[in-house]
Amino acid sequence: MRLLLTALLIALALGAPLRAQQVTKPELPGVRNYARLETTVACAGAISPEQAVPAIRKEGFVSIINLREASEPGANVEQEETLARSAGLKYFHVPFNGASPEPKAADAFIAAITSPGAEPAFIHCSGGNRAATMWMIKRMVVDHWDADRATKEAMSLGQTSAPLRQFAVEYARSHQR
To answer: What is the mean pLDDT of the chain?
Structure first.
């Protein structure tokens, strides 16, 4: 009996971290490349604000963090902000250029995601890569995850760019809390 109980406790201990990091990729109206990490966060690509904002609210998110630059085709930043605020969601616009990432964007993202009442957060850009990169930074800087663990989770959320991964690791090394 004692051996069985020990085996059960070990199995639960080993399985808990896996469940805590489970990423699902259900369909969500008006959202491209939707990847959700349990109840904490979702990373996604471009959204159609009029269709997506109500769906995001219905999914239980309390904030939207938009990483798209206003100059990106189809970004609709002002419309998205208006619809988000009308739906009772907090809205953060943190422009993040994936081709030439700036630490100030990561600073603004960390401030947004750690602000009171920001989670669960829906984080998006145009394809999902920048959103997952910023979440990777949050995991390393705020949650003190090592780079390997944060990278694995970020990649399952849609992080695909090696240069952005490197930016995330370098940012985290110089901004530990």
So the answer is: 89
